[in-house]
Amino acid sequence: MKTYREMAHDIMKERTSKDTKREKLLKIGLTETDIQQLFFIERMAAMQGQKEAAADEARRQLLASYTFGVEIECCNVRPDTIGTIANRKGLDFRNETYNHTDHRSHYKLVPDSSIRGNDPIECVSPILKNGKPGFDSLKACCDTLNEAGARVNRSTGLHVHVGGNISKRQYCNVFANYYYLEAVIDSFMSPSRRNGNTYCKPLHGNISENGLTAATTAREISNLFNGDRYYKINATAWGRHHTIEFRQHQGSTNYEKIAAWARFCIKLVHWSADNRLTAPVVSINDIEFLTDEEKAYFTNRANALAAL
Q1: Hey, CA dihedral for 101, 104, 108, 112, is it positive or negative?
Q2: DSSP 8-state class, residue 180
Q3: Closest listed residue to residue 137, CA positions, set 157, 107, 159, 163
Q4: How big is the chain by its Cα radius of gyration, in Å?
Q5: Taking each helix axis from N to C terminus, what angle separates 132-147 and 255-271, rounded to the nearest 10 degrees?
Q6: I want to staple 234 with a disulfide (CB 3.0 to 4.6 A). Which of 173, 200, 229, 303 is the partner?
Q7: Quick check: 229 and 277 in contact, CB under 8 A?
């Protein structure tokens, strides 16, 4: 036998008119005051649901509004070979001298003296939108490099730039958050990209924790890094590209690895709009902005790298 509360709840869930619900509620013994209160609660719940749906949609649109770009360092591949394959795939790859110019339509192939090996090259993507077209373009790029025979080694790295409507507070939060995430990020990075790499130095031991947590402007962050871009997260890219550059990832032409890290960086920037960590995160499962599937992916990466 159902209680009055359960019967009333069932009636309120029915897809019938307000008058029909009122009649049924009166029949089970509720007063007009009781019924009005139920209708009021129902209206408030509906309004709250609409607000939450609107907030979710706003967050989704904001996440989709970010841009990203990748710099893939590799070797053992010639630009003309890449160009031939890219043309067949309908991709625009162009050979350029070393430069820091951003492009919106084509990939550029530039020399990089930091890479050891034959025919070293850096493949720089155009500015890509965070969404399917952007990641489809990235996949086509990786497929092109792999078909051309590109290789990576300990001297190669992968850099991800994230741009968009990033506030001053959000920008500073990203650096503080990376500081407190550094140890757990290290767990799913190659050992060569953790503590002893000249081109992606660690924040811990080099950058003031108090300075990071107190910083409120990009200039204050830049001062902490003394204008040095060779850290796991680059504080000089903002002035040149209006992006945040993540430099820690090891060299790779594997689309799954590159895309997973790019999404991690984008989500970190997005989450930092409203969140600033105050203590180290010690487990991948404690990274709030990752889905369960993403946590499992990075956990598997960490387990695989732990054996190295």
Answers
A1: positive
A2: H
A3: 107
A4: 26
A5: 150
A6: 229
A7: no
CATH of the domain spanning 66-156? 3.30.70
Encode pLDDT of 72-83 as tens digits.
Answer: 999 999 999 999
pLDDT tens across 20-45, in order? 888 888 888 888 888 888 788 888 77
Strand 93-95 to 107-110 pairing: parallel
Helix intervals (H) in the chain: 4-13, 18-27, 32-65, 79-89, 132-147, 168-187, 209-214, 218-224, 237-241, 255-271, 292-306
Q: Is 233 helix (H, G, I), strand (E, B) or coil?
A: strand
Beta carbons within 8 Å of 203's beta carbon, 6+ residues apart: 175, 178, 179, 182, 212, 231, 232, 233
Nearest to 274 by CA among 258, 289, 290: 289
Residue 274: is it exposed, middle or buried by C-beta count within 10 angstroms (0-12/13-18/19+)? Answer: exposed
Where are the domains positioned within the chain?
4-58, 66-156, 165-242+252-308
Per the model's pLDDT, the better-predicted residue between 51 and 266 turns out to be 266
pLDDT at 271: 96
What pLDDT band is residue 48 in, cutting at 50, 70 and 90?
confident
